[in-house]
Amino acid sequence: MPKLTIDGIEVEVPAGTTILQAAEQIGIEIPRFCYHERLSIAGNCRMCLVEVQPGPPKPAASCAMPVAEGMTVKTNSPMAVKARKGVMEFLLINHPLDCPICDQGGECDLQDQAVAFGYDRSRYTEQKRAVQDKYMGPLVATEMTRCIQCTRCVRFAQEVAGAPDLGGVNRGEHMEITTYVEKAIGSELSGNLVDLCPVGALTSKPYAFNARPWELKKTESIDVFDAVGSNIRVDARGNEVLRVLPRLNEDVNEEWLGDKSRHAIDGLRRQRLDTPYVRKDGKLVPASWQEAFAAIAAKVKTTSGAKMAAVAGDMADAESMVLLKDLLTALGSRSFDCRQDGAVFDLSNRLSWQFNSGIAGIDEADAILIVGSNPRWEAPVLNARLRKRYLTGKAKFAVIGEATDLTYKVDHLGTGPDALKAVADGSSPFAAVLKAAQKPMIILGMGALTRKDSAAILALASQVVDSCGLVKDGWNGFNVLHTAAARVGGLELGFVPGANGRDLDGILSGAEKGELDFVYLLGADEIDTKRLGKAFVVYQGSHGDAGAMRADVILPGAAYTEKSGTYLNTEGRMQRTARAVFPLGEAKEDWTIIRALSEVLGHTLPQNTLVQVRDRLAAVSPVFDEDTAVPAGKWGAFGVAGAIDAAAFESPVKNYYMTDPISRASRTMAECTEVYVNGNQKRKTGTHG
């Protein structure tokens, strides 16, 4: 490994490392605009100039120059500083003085560097350049006169998002970044362009002119719009969430975030439940908490535990699920389900429902089979990781299911179970690829596990694992990609039918037939509420969606930004949201509602604080205990062999932008649906770029 000296500090780094990367390893920051550690090197902004010896007596771009043995680098020599000041002067020749009205003001790289290397006057007297704004869809606003042609956005679109919709046209002073044909950027990760832009050329359209960064209270939290569990930062002013940004977590989302997770937050302000309701004479009328609890208690007294059931929704936190199960168990019920889509797993083995190799394990896999899943819509950030692995050329990909553009090339083996069976019995050519791979992987989606024959499909997938050697020492390549943030946590807590209990289909059919007369919906809106028959329905949730419309009593709960809740992501990783704002109106945190209700029902739960509730979680499963190592599961065959329907696998996500009560209430997501799902990708007359 070559040794070099940077600002008097000797450092040894691997061959091929650039000067800029070597400097960062010893804590020396070199200014840059075009360089980004996750994108290819462009070397076109020249802001990272340093003095290098031995070499020609001129500054060198540190982002593009590899280190060499014996090299001496000065990052702040008079030559380097003068060169950067010259670069900054050129960058500011055409840049408008928009700081007072620019959304990037206060968090703009150009603004920060201008303070260090800018000049207090301009020597440029020629006419300034103006560039027409471009239309890039409902999420990205443009002010292209500010663009400094760093090409970060171009490289992100091509390399990470896999949507080569952006590029540069013309040369020299006339160069422009454009979508060529004016249309929306065709990616579910387009919001990341705003984070990458070092100036105010690309800004967030929904957030435009709402706030300055110093006005916002920043809260580190977790995203719950899919099962990846992306790490986020929630920015709020007062009691209103104004934006969501990604946080760095190399093992989960790196530093990217899907567009729904970022921009569906305007749905937090619409169609909210902010007071209890009780149905009287066929109409829901506002009520006090005491009246709502009294209505529930009156019904519970007239029924038995065998006629009671509960369904947990896709965004329910573990705290509320464990207390609801404890309460209904005390009342005598055994009918619970956290699987609104009816997914099938081996409930005795957590390995049958987890992403066992871990999301970061994708970076090591060398053969990947995707079955019954469209990860581009089900988990865009995870799909970007799959694309990243594809671009290395070290992994082969195959898909069984819908033939869709996943942003990377795959072998399409077939649409249904017959193709999976061919892999299991070795007659498919891809079976040989899996067997030859060092770290093979299968990703089983909800399109394969929510069918009538899912138990048999699961057995077939288990057969693939055994026949192709997907599980070996130090590697488990069997992975389930969930679509619901609450799912893994609910399964781990045992929020599933107990002895003689009913699953989701049993609950709905029982309510239809009058065999169940009390159903508790904990944020469950994706079920067929028409099948609830004449059952007494309690709905606890944050939005007036399908479940609330059918309810006899509504208990207003908190949204994910309004509570501290525990979630397990698709790989079983425990993460917690943090309260950024307070619940609206009379709404309360979900676990506190269930605790208060238990007292009225005469089965007072012993947990009075959040710490005690989390102790209860840890008692149910060590996965929820931060101080206890989770025991490694033992691999074994699962599923039940049986008749298999030849019908094609279909992803359950038909519209990425509307999958839950929050995103369905979002005006921004309605615009995205119109543009991306309905195909109206061209600019509407009169809209701002």
From TrEMBL:
It comes from the Bacteria. Binds 1 [2Fe-2S] cluster per subunit. The keyword Iron applies. The keyword Iron-sulfur applies. Its EC number is 7.1.1.-. Residues 79-118 form the 4Fe-4S His(Cys)3-ligated-type domain. One of its GO terms (molecular function) is 4 iron, 4 sulfur cluster binding. Its cofactor is [4Fe-4S] cluster; [2Fe-2S] cluster. It catalyses: a quinone + NADH + 5 H(+)(in) = a quinol + NAD(+) + 4 H(+)(out). Residues 2-79 form the 2Fe-2S ferredoxin-type domain. Residues 216-272 form the 4Fe-4S Mo/W bis-MGD-type domain. One of its GO terms (biological process) is ATP synthesis coupled electron transport. Coiled coil: none annotated. NDH-1 shuttles electrons from NADH, via FMN and iron-sulfur (Fe-S) centers, to quinones in the respiratory chain. Couples the redox reaction to proton translocation (for every two electrons transferred, four hydrogen ions are translocated across the cytoplasmic membrane), and thus conserves the redox energy in a proton gradient. Belongs to the complex I 75 kDa subunit family. This is NADH-quinone oxidoreductase.
